[in-house]
Amino acid sequence: MVTRRALLAGLLGTAALAACRRRQPAARATRVDPRDHAAFFLWAGVRAPDWLGAARTVYLLAGEVPHRDPPRFVPLRAVPRVRGPQVWLTVRVERLDWPEAVTQTVLQALARWEMAGNRLVGLQVDFDAATRGLAGYAAFLARLRARLPQRWRLSITGLLDWSAGGDPAALARLAGVVDEIVVQTYQGRRTIPGYEAYLRGLRTLPIPFRVALVEGGAWREPPGLAAQPNFRGYVVFLLPPR
């Protein structure tokens, strides 16, 4: 039989334990160390560190389609010869009204990178699509996917607020077009405050996704992120020295 004194002692012990747990601080954010990761963004003008050859995946900025007229692809990097990591050819895009010449130039660049011996995964489009403009972006990507040979995959970067304010129907249409979304959690050299709340919205995203971190930025992994079925890990944006 449990005595009243023993029961009271047990209740007090449970309350003390709960209070102790409440007083324990949450895990602190740490600075992103690229050496703790296996996938990286390398933009034009950023020198590849010596250890990058041991990476698993590298996204290399090949060129851009700027907003100025006429629309054209502007190369920003010579054809690389990467030994070891898988490579994505990334194009920074500021406009979606591509004429045929732009599409052909991008496809030719992909072919040259592959012929140079790179383990080419496919094409990544880096475009800051407004959350309310996702439907138009999805239509552009569907046209691009139709032109892309099946052996190459299609990746896009994504903004944090897509998860909170994006049209669910437009996001669902992306699921049949792109192979992954790399969600950016930074602006410039800093991590965007409040990223944890935005990332919770990715639980319903029907597309494989990675989370992009900035080198040296503050980061604390949100609870449950690693357990999400479509989460594929991190990509670190490498910075030029100051």
UniProtKB/TrEMBL annotation:
The record's section on SUPFAM superfamilies has:
(Trans)glycosidases (SSF51445)
Q: Which InterPro entries match?
A: DUF3142, GH, TAT_signal
Q: List, alphabetically, the Pfam families matched.
A: DUF3142 (PF11340)
Q: Where is coiled-coil annotated?
A: none
Q: State the protein's name.
A: DUF3142 domain-containing protein
Q: Which organism is it from?
A: Novosphingobium album (ex Liu et al. 2023)
